[in-house]
Amino acid sequence: MVVIVVLAAPLLGGCGGATASHSPTATSSLTIASSTSSATSAAPAPTAAATAPTSTATPTTTATPTTSATTATTTRSHPPTAVAQPPIVWDPIPFGPERKAEMVAYAERHYGLHTYRLIDPHVIVIHFTESPDFQSTFNTFAPDTPDSELHELPNACAHFVIDRDGVIHQLVPLGIMCRHTVGLNWTAIGIEHVGYSDQEILDNPRELGASLALVHWLRCRYGIAVANVIGHNESLSSPYHHENVVALRTQTHNDFNRADMDVYRAKLRALGGCTAG
């Protein structure tokens, strides 16, 4: 696929809806100790016109954010999975050395981590783009300019964007952090859905079907529980939410609220489990 980058009107902070600020419905009391997942190198690469690279290099540090004195180790085994990878088109945004260095600086400010790498993710976050099509979303994420909402570098991005016709586009390798959800970027895979509301995506069989197939495969690949497949609007109640910048500790968006995600998660559970028989 030949991608022509034309700058378009920016999304609101990288995903749909106006920013909302409120207190979380649940608070975390975890110190999360993660380990590098062998699934990153063992899982099949996306099938596309070009193959998406998989990052396996060792990060500068594997320390993880601390949210209180209580300690819980979340090192997980990833059993063999019988879940097939759906078709994925590799449409990478530029993410070179400068953008990676900016991601390291972002991770240091927000999470106390000196790495740009996404290691053993624990959460999948569902978004909508508040834009009309994939191309306009690509055009928003591709340039490495300060995002329109928080004005930080690197620019916002998501790992995947699902178009209205059900085509799954991968923009960033799964071994790299993307800025899509404040407080969770250190451990979350971001999936954007082209559209302007939760219901619009839930009512589109092709877009929703592709989304469920992708999330089923990803959660099984990384051992992520269905409960940790969340909407952006649920970010503050995630046990993995951590934010060092005080002013952003209650920052979230309105895309995919709990009621709509309960519908989504029910459909995801209906797809079955992960372990190969």
Report on this model:
The strands form three sheets. This protein has a six-stranded mixed β-sheet with strand order 4-7-6-8-5-9, sandwiched between helices. It is globular. By secondary structure, the protein is of the alpha/beta class. The chain is built from six helices and ten strands. It has helices at 39-42, 97-111, 134-141, 198-202, 205-222, 258-269, and strands at residues 19-21, 32-33, 72-73, 89-90, 123-128, 160-162, 168-170, 188-193, 229-231, 251-253. The termini are far apart. A hairpin with a 5-residue loop joins strand 6 (160-162) and strand 7.
Q: Could you name the key traits of this structure?
A:
277 residues; alpha/beta; 6 helices; globular; disordered N terminus
Give the CA-CA distance, first to last residue. Answer: 37 Å
Q: How much helix is in the residues?
A: 10-25%
How would you write the strand order of the largest sheet?
4-7-6-8-5-9
Structural class: alpha/beta
Number of alpha- plus pi-helical segments: 6
Q: Beta-strand level of the residues, as a percent range?
A: 5-15%
Ranges with pLDDT <50 over ≥5 residues? 1-14, 18-63, 67-74
Counting DSSP E segments of at least 2 residues, the number of strands comes to 10
Form type: globular
How confident overall, as mean pLDDT? 80
Task: Report on the biggest sheet.
Answer: 6 strands, mixed
